[in-house]
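// run 5 | inverse folding | seed 20
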């Protein structure tokens, strides 16, 4: 399981459809203020232990500024919000050639339930319902990155 966390002032995800012309005309699936935009991808061998570890780490990471401007506060400490978007391309392998391989990405029958379980887990741990994208849809994400602070995590490489 991989995740890319972006500390944001605000973010939203909209579902796209063929022929769209203006971003503002697309329906909003999820929207947050101050908090974290989390892009998450799954492999076929991810377990509930991976989900738990990732969710606990995300909620507990001290990446928000304290009164002295030091990253010393967690999502819970700042009453931050979460927007979680499934993104299979996080599992891309670029080792060979110029076309990424997605062979490690879990198929939708595996990744869709993992995504739902992850949303439930991170919501329970944060004490707030996580906003979400639309699984498998073409989505457009807008965000105001704060810092910028961007963190990459991998449940199979916890020392990354």
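// decoded
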């Amino acid at each position: 399981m991989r995740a890319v966390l972006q500390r944001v002032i605000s973010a939203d995800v909209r579902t796209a459809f063929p022929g769209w012309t203006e971003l503002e005309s697309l329906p909003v699936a999820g929207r947050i203020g101050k908090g974290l935009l989390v892009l998450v991808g799954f492999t076929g061998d991810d377990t509930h232990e991976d989900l738990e570890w990732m969710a606990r780490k995300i909620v507990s990471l001290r990446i928000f500024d304290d009164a002295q401007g030091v990253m010393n506060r967690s999502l819970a400490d700042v009453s931050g919000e979460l927007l979680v978007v499934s993104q299979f391309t996080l599992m891309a392998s670029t080792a060979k050639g110029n076309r990424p391989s997605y062979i490690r990405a879990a198929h939708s029958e595996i990744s869709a339930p993992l995504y739902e379980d992850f949303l439930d887990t991170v919501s329970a741990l944060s004490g707030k319902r996580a906003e979400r994208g639309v699984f498998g849809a073409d989505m457009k994400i807008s965000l105001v990155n704060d810092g910028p602070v961007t963190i990459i995590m991998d449940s199979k490489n916890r020392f990354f």
